Amino acid sequence: MEYSIWCFGIARDIVGAPRLLIQLDTSSSVADLKEKINRMYEGFGQLKTYRIAVNQNIADDQTILSAGDEIAIIPPVSGG
Amino acid sequence: MTNKSIYIKNESLSVDAAYQYILDERSGGNCIFVGSIRDLNMKKTVRSIDFDCYDAMALKEMHKIADELFSAYEITRILMHHRKGLVKIKDIAVIIAVSAIHRDAAFAACRTAIDALKKRVPIWKKEFYQDGHYWINSTP
Q: Is some CB atom of chain B closer than 8 A to the CB atom of A74?
């Protein structure tokens, strides 16, 4: 299944685009997504950390992704 | 009129407008925090800052913070406004304004709001220097 991932902050610079398309098996988890992202772009290994938001909520690694989910890479925030 | 004003926008923020919003006949204490862009960070001269933002999630989180503050403190109104896009030195990055019957709640809620915003709201700051740029907080 193909997922569209929104990239913000430094994630957009690492990917080089605001959106990333990733192929994952059906019933893949957030952990599977992060593993694939880390393999595709070594820049993510240099971040302090990053999280994944699913439908505008921070998701834990066990969360299973579904078709139509709004998914985003959330690097450490720095507003204010 | 609602009791909270929350937005993220790509144009100048106004402290006057924020104060006018929180003024309320029930309130005797008004606290306003204004975060502006400074010209020095980590011993480097900052030329400008670009704020990136996940608008939908950021607004949702800011509303959540405001609702938590209404539950935790006796406040009357709250305003949280944040800039996005390119900002210059001395520009306002963020305004938090809170009105309450008494000052203690206004001070406490204002402080809690800016701390929570900095920790939880998906907004990212890219600083530009003479010789490059840096996404704040992102790398060790």
A: yes
B84 in a structural domain? yes
- B140: in domain: no
Q: A40-50 pLDDT, tens per residue?
A: 999 999 999 99
What residues of B are in contact with residue A10 (Cβ under 8 Å)? 124, 126, 135, 138-139
DSSP-derived secondary structure for chain B? --SEEEEEESS---HHHHHHHH--TT-SEEEEEEEE--SEETTEEEEEEEEEE-HHHHHHHHHHHHHHHHHHS-EEEEEEEEE-EEEETT-EEEEEEEEESSHHHHHHHHHHHHHHHHHHS-EEEEEEETTEEEETTT--
User: Where does the pLDDT of residue B42 fall: very low under 50, low under 70, confident under 90, or very high at 90 and above?
Assistant: confident
User: What domains does chain A contain, in order, with CATH numbers?
Assistant: 2-74 (3.10.20.30)
Residue B110 with chain A: CB contacts under 8 Å:
none
Domain that holds residue B113: 4-135
